[in-house]
Amino acid sequence: MTAEHTDRSGYTTPAPVRELWLQTPVREFTTETGDRRWLVTGMEQVRAVMADPRFSRAEARRLGAAIGPAAVFRNTGINDLDPPEHTRLRRLVAGAFSARRIRGLRPRIQQITDELIASLVAAGPPADLASGLCYPLPVTVICEILGVPGEDRQRFRGWADRVVSTGAYPPEEALGALKAMVAYMAELVDAKRRDPDESLLQDLITARDEQDRLSEDELVTLGCGLLLAGGESTATTLGKGLVALMDNPGQLALLRADPSLVPAAVDEVLRYTTLGVHPYGGHIRATTSDVDLDGTTIPAHSVVHACLPAANLDPKAFPDPERFDVTREGAADHVAFGYAMHRCLGAQLAKLELEVAIGSVLAAFPGLRLTVPAEDVPYKHGFLITGLRALPVTW
């Protein structure tokens, strides 16, 4: 497969893969390396895979098929576990991401956003919104939640880029960054034991030291995983969402005329854009037994790709799905955050960050526009997530 297709969200896939999305929602296929796998693309079918415990993340890792930041760790991360182990770790951090606690973060998220925008205004146009807003906002927020000192955040960003590399950096460089990040997290845990604070990482330390609810390795791996998940994915979605708005001036005008549409627009951004985490679509599972899905039997120990981007573009779920529409009814039914037991813990936090950032950008820059055509916005490739290298704008 050599031909490629790049959509307006920067998601690049081999053209035959895109064709598979448009065919039957459950089908067997052959990867570029000759592996036989199963591709699930319909919204109904993807949800079934995500909710059915017979489609196992742990089995996928055992077969060597799981990808994602957790897959590079020596120890299994939360996203590579099935219940009851997954449930145990998820409960440890769920409270930090409750709706009440996330709502309480709005003033601080707004303050961070205002400070970043003020710096952009002071420097004047043109500007790079990727480096000036999209990346520093979520990284700052997740670091504050976990209790990562401000002076260490840029160092972490360099490690994170390499850890999630799938070719952008040499393997030995990625492995070195991983080792450095794990060592740093272990040191941070020790520092908080000596000087406790009120961070989420401190809560996990308490669960380890006083309640024996997780191991030391699980503590360190979970801390690294939360940092990785809380920064890049939200930054990428924010950047791609702003591109989509500027590339659809009619929709941008609607949002400017009625800022109350921002929450609905965020759901449409999440549905319309994609993180590009894998050529076949994201969440990988493996069957623990024969499973009948939509009238097709998938044999036991088969690797299954639940293609979230395709599900979000399923015309049965979203009429005219490739149209960007901030007033779309039912946009919130997307599966950008996953579904069921593996739905992203930080979904509400990410949505809040997106709402605050998009609303603030539109208010601060009434003449905001791209300085290049939307199709020429530069994207990063060779990473688990296809993020923006830059977002060049003026106003």
From TrEMBL:
<dbReference type="InterPro" id="IPR001128">
    <property type="entry name" value="Cyt_P450"/>
</dbReference>
<dbReference type="GO" id="GO:0004497">
    <property type="term" value="F:monooxygenase activity"/>
</dbReference>
<protein>
    <submittedName>
        <fullName>Mycinamicin IV hydroxylase/epoxidase</fullName>
        <ecNumber>1.14.-.-</ecNumber>
    </submittedName>
</protein>
<keyword id="KW-0479">Metal-binding</keyword>
<dbReference type="GO" id="GO:0016705">
    <property type="term" value="F:oxidoreductase activity, acting on paired donors, with incorporation or reduction of molecular oxygen"/>
</dbReference>
<dbReference type="GO" id="GO:0005506">
    <property type="term" value="F:iron ion binding"/>
</dbReference>
<comment type="similarity">
    <text>Belongs to the cytochrome P450 family.</text>
</comment>
<dbReference type="InterPro" id="IPR036396">
    <property type="entry name" value="Cyt_P450_sf"/>
</dbReference>
<dbReference type="InterPro" id="IPR002397">
    <property type="entry name" value="Cyt_P450_B"/>
</dbReference>
<keyword id="KW-0349">Heme</keyword>
<dbReference type="GO" id="GO:0020037">
    <property type="term" value="F:heme binding"/>
</dbReference>
<keyword id="KW-0560">Oxidoreductase</keyword>
<dbReference type="Pfam" id="PF00067">
    <property type="entry name" value="p450"/>
</dbReference>
<keyword id="KW-0408">Iron</keyword>
<keyword id="KW-0503">Monooxygenase</keyword>
